[in-house]
Design a protein that fits this description.
Layout (H helix, E strand, L loop, with lengths): L1 E2 L2 E2 H5 L6 H6 L6 H4 L3 E2 L3 E5 L7 E7 L14 H17 L6 E5 L12 E5 L8
Antiparallel strand pairs: 1-2, 3-4, 4-5, 5-7, 6-7
Organism: Berkelbacteria bacterium GW2011_GWE1_39_12
Pfam families: DcpS_C
Keywords: Hydrolase
Length: 128
Amino acid sequence: MVRHGLKMEYLMDQDKDCIFCKIANPPAGGEEERKLEYSDDEIVAFPSIAPKAKVHLLIVPKRHITSIDELTDEDALIVGKMIIVAKKLAQEKGISGGYKLIFNAGKYQEIKHLHLHLLGGSDLGSIA
């Protein structure tokens, strides 16, 4: 079953209090939907509200996965797809000279929903 282009399996696997779940699964035509840089059935990407580089996008699965620490073998495809989406967005944004992809976990992860940071377009030397 599909609702607004979203598979029902993802609707059932959401955390109603998670800000990234709300952003990743916006109502059709809603304000959050207009802020998305990328969206498909499984993944969205949007700008960071606290950018650390000229380009700082967050690539987020629509299904709630708390952290890298929660990943299972079944999640390999979604994590791989997140990286491929990041590569495509870097190309679309015209990032040249390199970029960084960062997953945070544990005490370094502010939002408890798996997300990949795409950073580029400026000197990233101080960003680990």
